[in-house]
Specification:
This protein is about 80% helix and about 0% strand. The chain is elongated and about 65 Å long. It starts with a helix and ends in a 5-residue tail after the last helix.
Length: about 130
Amino acid sequence: SFIEASFLLSSVWQGRVYHMFGFLAIVWTMVLITTAEASMVMVYLRLCKGCYKWWWTSYTCAACYGVWLYLYGLFYYCTVLQISSFWSSILYFGYMAMLAHAMALMTGSVGFLASFFFVRKIFGSIKAD
């Protein structure tokens, strides 16, 4: 995901042509699967401790991908881009905030739905006599 984010940011902010859409689809699928699995593991650990308030944990665990993306955008700004204008910097960070927020919403929703069906499955298999 790190290399793919670098290619995507260079195509958006530096005008380079991005032509690896198949690889992007594979990486995006891997990101979604990884966030879903990490969210389910965090919910399982929380349920093992006896805390049944797992709803926001499942969302925020997966939504941290958006935070990572914004921090990577900050790193990319400091190391690669040569932006000297104040308003161009404001525009860059504004668009990166919107992109990171959209990614956090998407991955958070995937993590929540995966955890929701995981909890339904494990509690549905309990036999009460």
